[in-house]
## 1
Amino acid sequence: MPPRSYVSPARSAAAAETRERVIEAASRTLREGESIARFSLDTVAKAAGVTRLTVYNQFGSRRGLLEAVFDEIARHGGLHQLADAMTMDDPRAALDRMVEIFCAFWSRDSAVGRLHDAMATDPEFAEAVRERNERRRRGVTALIDRIAARQASPQARKDAVDLIFALTSYPTFASLSAAGRSRDEVCRVVQAACRAALQPLTLSNPSS
Amino acid sequence: MPPRSYVSPARSAAAAETRERVIEAASRTLREGESIARFSLDTVAKAAGVTRLTVYNQFGSRRGLLEAVFDEIARHGGLHQLADAMTMDDPRAALDRMVEIFCAFWSRDSAVGRLHDAMATDPEFAEAVRERNERRRRGVTALIDRIAARQASPQARKDAVDLIFALTSYPTFASLSAAGRSRDEVCRVVQAACRAALQPLTLSNPSS
DNA sequence: AATTAGATATACATAATGTATATTCAATCT
DNA sequence: AGATTGAATATACATTATGTATATCTAATT
């Protein structure tokens, strides 16, 4: 008696739809709520018009839901434009563009701020977000390798990568935003700082 | 029948001692615990050898305890050296020193990282920490005012202040540390970035 | 000896995550 | 058409936290 199983177009379509609805409700709740502390699966479920148990069915846990929201935001956040940026002829222009893309990403949906808050209370979720950020680090590394003069030391390259990685992170964006800057103003400041971080890579006199 | 009240040296001394013991236990718990999520007043109370209710008596709430821990760490974190730094003749050297002092502060006690995590879940605690950070911003502002050339625009000054404020923040320190750097290596990178942030203030040609 | 401050004991209210079990209902297969 | 299956629901329960309330205990002061 092997249980006969089947795939149901209508069923899985409906399931995908509720899934979308829950993700939408979750990101809205994150956006409108004043703190991640108030973000409960109860709230989300009610906002989506489903039961809390349905959320567990779809995402397994609070963490699963948060990851799904993060991925959804990333999908619609314009990060796909990075591919084009990376192929630009001038790697410095590419870096400028990269900063622009990430500033747009961090500012597009305020839910990303709340998701970064969630990293504080859930180490595994934090790890998942960090892994997703590693793509940014790899992008920066690739650009630095193109920008750096041949005689630039590995240490100087790593310094530049780590610094630019920090400068393009969400916390830096949030700090500059909190100082009362528009997205474009933040972008301008970060771009300038990143350009400055390149200086040690091009000067033929590496301090010694 | 006004209740006669009195101050009791032995009483308040004993109270102060338990208070210290609880703060010590709390910071130890923060230091050793792997996440702020696991930080409960139950744990702290047991570690301090008191009841959870005693913690409420002394600090009023979880937030009150966290603030007390933060202030205790700040008291022994070497921030008093900032006064000397600010009076240095060379404001650039003072800035270097300031970075040094804050790198030492952020790295001295790993509990500060957990306290920053706590900001994510408690908006009022976050506000309290932000207020304490404003002293750093004022220090940076004072130095920038001394460093900036007379013709430097207010905008350029604000850019430098906000950027250096972000560069000397805990999140930046944590990001650079996570990249596998020692405290001194982080300090060196941040100092270089801060010096670079001063460039636009001294060049007599402000881009136009 | 009465009183008082600080700590304790016990109990309770509330909210959140997560698990377990049985059930409803519409879509799919034979 | 009737049996079966997947998704969602209903209900219940265990666990862990914060925070409040009330009464009691004990040692320091008056």
## 2
Amino acid sequence: MVSTPVPDPKMLDCPALVTIQLVSGKWKTRVLWHLRQGGAGFGDLRRAMPGISAKVLTEHLDALVADGLLARTESLEGKVLHTRYRFSDYGFTLIPVLDALGSWGLNHAERAAGHRFP
Amino acid sequence: MVSTPVPDPKMLDCPALVTIQLVSGKWKTRVLWHLRQGGAGFGDLRRAMPGISAKVLTEHLDALVADGLLARTESLEGKVLHTRYRFSDYGFTLIPVLDALGSWGLNHAERAAGHRFP
DNA sequence: GCAAGGAGTTACCCGATGGTGAGTACCCCG
DNA sequence: CGGGGTACTCACCATCGGGTAACTCCTTGC
């Protein structure tokens, strides 16, 4: 599992690492980014992120749910199982942080696109 | 190399990932965290972070310098080479983001320490 | 001469992360 | 009945980040 039930003490001298552990992984931020616009099903997420495999998506979702950032809701529409993933209340508190990462990253991308470190 | 010269286009649909790439790695945040309190030499950093090997520290520092977050200054004190690592001006702009990660992480650590997801 | 400290480099190994392809189970549609 | 959709699981691989240990090069001090 990729989750971090209880952050190991070594991290506490660097609390930023705790957050990074929860969010790092090739697709985790992308999943979170996509779910910002509202909940989605497993298949929605697959389609939204071409390249991810079912296995890895499952792993990442499980980790995010286990860490309390996402909530999973299963429902039967007709008789077909539908699973919906969305931010939990706790997960919402992470959004400002993700936004900070996002806007800095966007700025960095622009900067790096042109010239190297002017 | 662990650096991300020009962020690959796939990341741009998730700018947060750009930032995370720069900062993820077992020791990168710890290096940055330590350097927040002022510049330090190679040996200072090794001593400050028991467990890191010279190789990995070199790799991480190289990556952080290549990404423009840190600046390396070499000086000869007497005839001995001293290398000093510190935040670059650009690196400073990342500090608020690291603080956001840090305070959220600290909060998460407290939350996880007691009960699981109350 | 030899240890010790500063600043790395090199070769090699290991385990976690992620990718592939197939298979499962259930249901709906034509 | 076949094809397609939802939601996964399983077995197997490949890559890569990180760890280990040894080795370089240079200078200062006993």
## 3
Amino acid sequence: MATLRGGDLSRLRQLNSLTAIGALRGAGPLTLSALAKRTGLSRPSMKEVVDELMQLGWVEETPPAQGTIGRPARRYRFRASSGYLVGLDIGGHNIRAALANLNGEILAETRQPVRPDTPVEERLAAIERTVASCLALGGKTIADVWIVAAGTIGVITPEGRIHYCAAIPAWTGLDLAGRLREMFPCDVVVENDSRLAARAEAQRGTVRDASDVVFLHVGRRMGAALIIGGNVHRGFGAAAGEIAMLPQAQWFDAPEHLQNCSIIPPDTSPADAAGYTLAAARAGDPVALAAVERYVDDLAVGTSAMVLLLDPQVVVLGGGFSRSADVLLPPLRERLRRSCIRLPDVRASTLGDECVVTGAIDYAVAHLDHQLFTPDVPLPTSR
Amino acid sequence: MATLRGGDLSRLRQLNSLTAIGALRGAGPLTLSALAKRTGLSRPSMKEVVDELMQLGWVEETPPAQGTIGRPARRYRFRASSGYLVGLDIGGHNIRAALANLNGEILAETRQPVRPDTPVEERLAAIERTVASCLALGGKTIADVWIVAAGTIGVITPEGRIHYCAAIPAWTGLDLAGRLREMFPCDVVVENDSRLAARAEAQRGTVRDASDVVFLHVGRRMGAALIIGGNVHRGFGAAAGEIAMLPQAQWFDAPEHLQNCSIIPPDTSPADAAGYTLAAARAGDPVALAAVERYVDDLAVGTSAMVLLLDPQVVVLGGGFSRSADVLLPPLRERLRRSCIRLPDVRASTLGDECVVTGAIDYAVAHLDHQLFTPDVPLPTSR
DNA sequence: GTTAATAATGATGCACTCCTTCGTAAGTCA
DNA sequence: TGACTTACGAAGGAGTGCATCATTATTAAC
């Protein structure tokens, strides 16, 4: 009720225009009648709204559907190619970029390996290269891009500085948003990677149906994010979800159980170690199974805390280890059943390694929506 | 954006009416011009809105202000006495009732002691008596009451059953909402007591300015509640905030440190034991201070988990022990500073023992607002 | 006591948005 | 080719909000 406001007749038109845009973005091309039905407006009114939106460049006409009875209806769709969005995943070992249209449909993706100890300037240069190649792959230039949304490991400030980053030591203290703004002449937003992955999960993953979700970002690093009331919870200082910092949660070192298991061949690369243990556990190796048990024990402590505190509808296991959800979920469920009041639905993520960069695109879309739905914020020209 | 909808012209009027009601509820009597200024509408339009609201019985005129230059303006106010609200705090040792008008202004309060082992039927009878005497005290009858909002210890289901209650053993399994509905011929809502106290704190307490808050409900029982984005977070199964159930949080038995301190005289009643320890600690008794340290150690573990997870703007210490905030807050701050990324503002509640019953009234007001702001929900007749 | 200043009131006309209705147009099907 | 179906477009009407202006009630100053 805080934000509920009436106003002018033009405000009403604005609301109806936005509802129409929302309907068009949600579903593919729609006829006027279909739009009217969805928004609750009458057809003539809808016509006027759509005419206006076409004039503003937000909506365009598409060829009518074939083979329908009666006079073929004009069809309209959101003009998703008025501008483009770039998503970035700046991780310890990889930099990923994605190019998407205003609907968040991904048109191109690129990836470049880096190392956790890559110096800052070199890493920033790699980011620029990755984005440039992604734009080239999609046949666009940076001038076509409206928003760059970047996700990175670590605790970030609301303004987009890296407050603390254990995974990329040199990252700590960097004004990432500032540096990216120097690099890209458009709107830049920066967010924690786990929260972006959670967003992707809520937008296109396994929890599109739920509005209260605990997202576990598990892999070589442990992270978490919360979706509350349908929104990714950011926290007052943009530091929500950092339960790994609590010693009692036994989270920080939990992956060690999997990465230092005695059955791992000595020449295995660190990137594959945990995978080896998980695969062995799937095959029934008792030592690996014991390691998994210990890992899940630790994982469950922090997860229980989150579940007890938030009583979410769903817990999602995402991140690198989610590929082994078949091994991890049953014991995790078992632990949660014992410690929680109500066992939430426990699911595995269906998004792969692109979850963060996908979430970054979704974050950019949300940012655009926010601008769209907030009067007084100037929009990039759409025509 | 999910709930953002345009619509009809009547929808616009509805929005403006609700904005007007909101403005009138927030501030005392307002003139037409003041209302217009607040809502952004023009004076003539405001007039029409107010006329309609007067006709519907939501708004009434009050005598004009004296001693103003120019023609005195008519003043209008929300007709808070169109109906009444009852708040209930059903605790282990006390039942409290409050009667308030539709603005949430409390007109009468009553209290009746009970015991944790009071049988269910007897306790329900006590509830009925407490409410009856409260109504009598306020000069109203149950027919004047639109909503009864009840808070009680324990985990409740979304439907208002007691899922589990450690403090009142016989309470577990009771369909509290159902029994109260049999008792009172009006709308009945049931909520966890800590969440109600948090709501009171957000509405009239120390955190009116913050939208992300961790509320610690500390006393002989430990509870917690979260305010996220300005809303009290309830959880999918209405079981949010139950971090005390997590063994690692060391919360459940934390009050024992204060209640079983060796310096407490043997004939002290259990209700006063912790208070004795806290008072001794304030006076500098080393044994009491050590007990307080141990208590805060435990309290800080669960609090750290919540702060790390949610990154709230404020942590509020409420409940019975908040009277000793001067003793508890400094060491709690110290612990949190060490374990958290960003130390939130740590404050003491200013509401006393009536925090839950006050919060129940605020919950009833919120429920009424919800009905007001949700079309299609029939309202109690207001005229 | 009279007059000027101030601020609210009430009435009028206008602009905008949405709705209903109806005749017309453009397809499919028999 | 004609019947049927569906969409289009235009016209008229109702509801809502705004700007404007003459009127009214009160205070302040002379």
## 4
Amino acid sequence: MQLDKIVNFHKTVGDKTRIRIISLLRSGPLHGQAIAGKLGLKAPTISHHLKKLKDIDVVYQRRDKNTIYYYLNESKLERLTHAIIEVGGNAMNEQYAVSQEEKAKIIQNFTDQTGRFKRLPAQRKKKLILLEHILRGLEHGKSYEEKEINEYIQTYYEDYATVRREFVMAHFMYRDNGIYELNPVEMWPV
Amino acid sequence: MQLDKIVNFHKTVGDKTRIRIISLLRSGPLHGQAIAGKLGLKAPTISHHLKKLKDIDVVYQRRDKNTIYYYLNESKLERLTHAIIEVGGNAMNEQYAVSQEEKAKIIQNFTDQTGRFKRLPAQRKKKLILLEHILRGLEHGKSYEEKEINEYIQTYYEDYATVRREFVMAHFMYRDNGIYELNPVEMWPV
DNA sequence: TATCTAATTAGATTATAATCTAATTAGATA
DNA sequence: TATCTAATTAGATTATAATCTAATTAGATA
């Protein structure tokens, strides 16, 4: 997940009124006037806060006649909540400082004449170095379709499905709804 | 956990610089100058952010000679993170500063031999305690007609209209279209 | 189409907070 | 004790955001 997304989530829920709205919606959907009444605030204020909660997808709405009911998206809330725990990466604990020379040598060992990989190393450490090497052609902050990722990986290695899965598992990439993004560098293993 | 504590936690981590500090400290303790250098900010700025992270106990420090090293308290971070998931459960009662003994005494002072109130206290704090006492006979999640509420209040106090109005004004209850409901506990004053 | 209800937007006010430079403090060392 | 290093505090500047009233918009209904 993008750093900014994590920050924005916490900025949004770091407000007393919005936490109270989340708390209210836990026991079921409510319309705007009801929320305003329960919290002792005016309708425009509630609109303002609901907009922010909708922006991060923690609240969604359904209209019934003139009235719009607001619902809590609990699974989204849980996923966003959990993201801060991953920041910095758990795999980061396996401190391995490998020099550029060593990396180059390992990459060369697994590369054929055409610059492609024949197989992935079994050793985790070496495998991460290869994965990182492949990643260098991708852009930070850009969103990729699964198909794009597959095609890109294939320019390096035949079994794109394995590599793509490894990218996500090692926290190099983040996948949401079939869309892939590079993780910020501070989430990478290594 | 108290509502304010949850809000304050998210307010604190809802900042890019502080998330980056947390991310850095995940791979081990660092001193202030090192953090400032890695983030491209000045020492006083880092002091400011570390203070906030220390205030919520997510960071602690150990001195070594002239240098202070800052550590991440990961278990605390996880516990605070999860609190928002629980919010809205009835576990928000801790915000009451007045002990049960004090409350009992105040209630006794305003009660006559028959267990009814002669008058309402002028002091807001005491009045809220009496109102809360009356409320205990009502059910959470149940809807009441105005008539029912009036009759119920009269078993405690003659001037039901005043009490009913106070209930709504103090956010103990919520009124929609002549129907009354108890508010969730975390909306209550005190 | 005219009118009603609920929600949203615009714009103002006010409060909060991120960052910096300059000054000060806490603690170690010679 | 004098001096050094790293951290903190004070105070200013600037940006962000919570809330309100008044105006507008979206959609339903007669």
